[in-house]
Specification:
Number of strands: 8
Distance between the termini: 66 Å
CATH architecture of the largest domain: 3-Layer(aba) Sandwich
Mean pLDDT: 79
Strand order of the largest sheet: 2-3-4-1-5
Oligomer: single chain
Helix content: 55-70%
Radius of gyration: 32 Å
Structural class: alpha/beta
Order of helices and strands: HHHHHHEHEHHEHEHHEHHHHHHEHHEEH
Largest sheet: 5 strands, parallel
Low-confidence stretches: 1-52, 62-72, 74-80
Shape: globular
CATH topology of the largest domain: Rossmann fold
Bound molecules: adenosine-5'-diphosphate, magnesium ion
């Protein structure tokens, strides 16, 4: 197609500069009429003038030349744009050498963001999620599956791996679209509708409208509609008193026309029993999958598989780290983080191997620092306060917040834990206690609810310390 256009463009340039006869031949072509109809009109009127007056003819010729020149220019601009926006990297003459220092290589491989091609120890969960989604696609129906497990047990990674596998082998499955939502990033549960509609159509609507449109879409038969798979991660954050959003999310897939598969992930195993209405649970159905925390062998396997071919750790050290983490949380991210820090230290200190002494030292620092110990042993309200600050950060993505915002999150946390919220005075005294321990940085509390607050500990450490306490 582009070849043809190219040829015609050349013809226009040549003929216009020579004689008007050949111009009219060219202008009869449908492509020209379609694309440059306006120019033709202009030029034909000019031609008639040209037959009357020689001077005008000369002028017309000049004008035609302009037309002919303008035409290819437009095209070449398009070509130029295409060239500009096509991402490309010059080919290397030789492959990049892998990092010479095995300790640096180990740090890269152990980073939690470096998700490996295959997830060891989650083969069964992979098969179950894959089997469910595939069956729904093949049947041409919809449904929802509920996945639970404490943070760092590979829930999100496993679902993403299933989707990646299906995307890489698209020809084996009916066509599908995949979209991802995260409860942590939604300002309120109703925002789910807005986000779902935006992902489906690219259109931004207010939540009432988005809900209506989604409802209509999912009830209207459309035999050729492509399947849609939604991953709703961090579902816990959508579980509020009013549960219409949850109800709809789980109800829509049951409509035969909808062709929607919902994969819902929550960190709490008993979320349905504890926080969901009966009508929501009935919509959710029985497709539930729980990710157990990793045990020592599994953590060892996860870390070792990332370090394959590198002689940085001995299996004893990995075993020790895995045992410590498995005993506290079973969070793969912790095990990976500790090993990465160990490799980093060794590199900094100019050694080439991690020893057991290093492991014990890092463990002591990470698990038994005074701040961690305080979080693990402080009062329930103080823990709720810290949890509220973490939730607020996840919701807004901003580290600094106000006591007013925290008091809202705090009430939510108390409600979901079935504990009576303290008075404002009680809340301030909790905040003051945490400030005095330097876990929270704050202005003086004279501004009341407008007092600015910020955590002085990593969010992961708070999550980790609080989860570790429950195990
Ligand atoms: N089985 C596994 N094999 C390798 N890495 C894993 C495994 N499980 C978890 N991880 C690592 O831990 C990180 C956190 O996992 P994630 O799926 O986000 O946990 P969850 O969603 O359960 O909180 C992943 O990015 C990955 O790096
Ligand atoms: Mg996750």
């Amino acid at each position: 197609m582009s070849e043809t256009k190219k040829t015609k463009r050349v013809v226009v340039v040549e003929t216009s500069s020579e004689e008007s006869e050949s111009d009219s031949d060219f202008e009869d072509s449908p492509t020209y009429k379609k694309k440059f109809g306006k120019n033709k009109k202009e030029s034909s009127s000019e031609e008639s003038n040209a037959s009357e007056d020689e001077e005008t003819k000369r002028k017309t010729k000049t004008k035609k030349k302009t037309v002919a020149v303008v035409t290819p220019r437009r095209k070449s601009t398009k070509l130029l744009e295409r060239r500009v926006f096509t991402p490309g990297v010059a080919q290397r003459k030789a492959p990049v050498k892998s990092s010479l220092n095995p300790l640096v290589e180990a740090q890269l491989r152990l980073h939690v963001s470096a998700v490996p091609d295959s997830l060891p120890c989650r083969e069964e969960e992979f098969a179950e999620i894959f089997g469910y989604v595939e069956s729904k696609l093949q049947e041409g129906t919809g449904g929802c599956i509920y996945i639970s497990g404490v943070p760092g047990t590979g829930k999100t990674a496993t679902v993403k791996q299933v989707i990646r596998y299906m995307e890489d082998n698209r020809d084996e499955f009916p066509d599908f679209n995949f979209f991802e939502l995260n409860g942590m990033r939604l300002t309120c549960p109703e925002q789910t509708y807005v986000e779902m509609w935006r992902l489906l159509t690219g259109e931004k609507l207010v939540h009432e409208q988005a809900m209506k449109k989604l409802d209509t879409r999912f009830s209207t038969p459309a035999p050729r509609r492509t399947h849609t798979i939604f991953l709703v991660d961090e579902l816990d954050m959508l579980c509020k008193k009013k549960q219409t959003v949850l109800y709809n999310i789980f109800e829509w897939p049951s409509r035969p026309q909808a062709k929607v598969v919902i994969i819902a992930i929550a960190n709490t195993m008993d979320l349905p029993e504890r926080d969901m209405d009966m009508r929501v649970i009935s919509r959710l159905g029985f497709n539930r999958l729980h990710f157990e925390p990793y045990n020592q062998q599994q953590l060892q396997c996860i870390v070792s598989s990332r370090l394959e071919g590198l002689e940085v750790f001995q299996s004893d050290e990995i075993q020790l780290v895995s045992r410590k983490v498995a005993g506290l949380s079973g969070d793969a991210r912790r095990a990976l983080d500790i090993c990465r820090i160990l490799a980093e230290r060794c590199e900094r200190e100019g050694r080439d191997r991690v020893t057991q002494v290093d492991v014990l030292k890092v463990h002591r620092e990470m698990f038994t620092s005074s701040k961690m110990m305080y979080i693990r042993t402080c009062s329930q309200l103080e823990q709720f306060f810290l949890r509220s600050m973490v939730n607020e950060f996840y919701k807004t993505g901003v580290e600094e917040t106000t006591l007013r915002n925290i008091s809202i999150r705090f009430d939510e946390t108390c409600a979901s834990e079935g504990v009576k919220s303290p008075s404002l005075h009680g809340l301030v005294s909790v905040a003051v206690r945490l400030s005095s321990q330097r876990l929270v940085l704050s202005e003086d509390y004279r501004k009341g609810l407008d007092t600015k607050l910020r955590l002085n500990v990593a969010f992961e450490d708070i999550n980790f310390a609080l989860n570790a306490r429950n195990i």
